Amino acid sequence: MTAPLGVILAGGRATRMGGGDKGLRDLGGRPLIGHVIDRLAPQCARLAINANGAPERWNFLGLPVLPDSLPDQPGPLAGVLAGLDWAAAEGAEAIVTAAADTPFFPPDLALRLQAHAGASGLCLAASPDETGRMQRHPTFGLWPVALRDDLRAALVEGLRKVVLWTDRHGAGVAPFDSLPHDPFFNVNTPADMAKAERLLAGRA
């Protein structure tokens, strides 16, 4: 399978962390987003970052910065659309997305998303919660460039919930284990950052 392009979604407001860029918070002596890049880069042909505001703050990473093309930060689907527009200009067929605040996602994310994609080429990652119920992770997906105009129209019409759009197009679901911990654990609060530090120390 052809390696997709990778887009790191870093456009959130980080309100539960007191604002600012969660991806630039320190984890183990380096920015949180650095851990995400290390995991995603080997899985993708090239990477870019979806982020709003001054792009210069990401210059040290040496990656393209893709702002939302729609106003008012309407959510992760707008970041997906920015990534799809970039991929179309690059001549690529699909992107894989990962969240900038999730440093432990699986190293075979892209391959398994591709293997479980629906007929439309869409796929979301999923893992079991503490009750064993599979939960989809809308910021971890495989997105075909062919659907970008449909996504743009849906966003203009006011759609914001990722799974409403992916269900509309018969997205596949790629299952992942949650042992020894959920690989899609994301850092939303200072307590989460402390947990991430413990998990990182346990992997060292």
TrEMBL record:
It is found in: Cytoplasm. One of its GO terms (cellular component) is cytoplasm. The keyword Nucleotide-binding applies. One of its GO terms (molecular function) is GTP binding. Coiled coil: none annotated. HAMAP family: MobA (MF_00316). This is Molybdenum cofactor guanylyltransferase. It comes from Paracoccus tibetensis. The gene is mobA.
